[in-house]
Amino acid sequence: xxxxxxxxSRSVSKMAHLRFFPQAVVGGSGAYLTGDDGRQLLDFAASWxxxxxxxxxPALRDAVNRAxxxxxxASYLSAANExxxxxxxxxxxxxxxxxxxxVWFGHSGSDANETVARMVVAATGRPRIxxxxxxxxxxxxxxxxxxxxxxxxxxxxxxxxxxxxxxxYAASGPEAARDAALAHLEQLFxxxxxxxxxxxxxxxxxxxxxxxLVPPDGYFKAVEALCRKHGILLVSDEVKVGxxxxxxxxxxxxxxxxxxxxxxxKGLGGGLPISAVVGPEAIMNxxxxxxxxxxxxxxxxxxxxxxxxxxxxxxxLVENAERTGxxxxxxxxxxxxxxxxxxxxxxxGLALGVELVADRSSREPASRQTALTAxxxxxxxxxxYYVGVRSNVLEFTPPLTLTENQALEGVAILEEALxxxxxxxxxxxxxxxxxxx
Length: 437
Ligand SMILES: *Cc1c(COP(=O)(O)O)cnc(C)c1O
Description:
By secondary structure, the chain is an alpha/beta fold.
């Protein structure tokens, strides 16, 4: 359908829009999307990582077809169904011992984090939650309440305390970033925030929407020790960077920590809505009918998630994320040597960020150039979005099936886009309607 983008604006609300360019898609296969103008677009966003196996993966299609051809109801609220039980058993095998209790299923990272936020307070009797400045834990009232991303238009909980996420680039080095972030936390515990009031600390093992910040070595290990000392539950929000994307199955494994509660979403359903919380039995079984939505635990989405996990295993996609991610990151570093707009290249596996700066010594954010680069890349055939509390970090969350050739193809397009932006060849008026976030 030609003109899909313009037609959409006459019928669909823009309240959920987070647009960077006028993209309209009619199909897709593997790492490519088909535009309504017939163009093939290489997809480095994968719908914010949700399309973890790429588009139209046969394993996902077959699983969904099977689940729908003999449908075991539409919900797990009032009946057990096999895909949910199998999926719960599988997820329990994929988390550390201390989290290996029970699994709750939802539709999204938002409802999962909201459930955790309510559940940990109810189960521990402790009122307060800790999270990071710049953290994105969701877009519902209860998940925004425990988030710290400045683009959100919701209210934070009065019981939330936000602490700085260590930013190695801004602090000119990982040790300085780690020490400052830990000092802040310890100071807080010693003064206005009694640690025995805190139910849980929500962490992102890589802070993705906040700018794809990779924690310095030793930081989360120290956070874990503080949490254990004070009986604070450690919640790893793996929604965007978990499930193999970083080159390990769980992103927290890079930090050598064992969270009490693990939250999965986005890529879990490979594009279908499903999320999961995995944690200790005493917390996860705190009460019945505590957090439920009608088609939670539906067997179709659960079957899709099982197919995603089986495919990650069978096709060694964790190894692929590690290997292809290394090629992608090395190639981006090579590009950084030629293109002064790039201030930093960071990330793990296929969760990467490229921070654009107007000036490398002051690290002044190049927010406008970032928006123009995403727009220009789209014109040239690459889908990439940007994140960061200053809107200046290009985010790479391609399908876990990405090949090395596709990685190189994407960076070549990105280089052309950056060169065009740096040379002033991209009209600023193009981004007037695409504020992004
Ligand atoms: C996207 C995201 C969420 C929210 O997930 P939704 O599916 O959008 O509700 C939560 N946490 C992290 C880290 C995310 O990236």
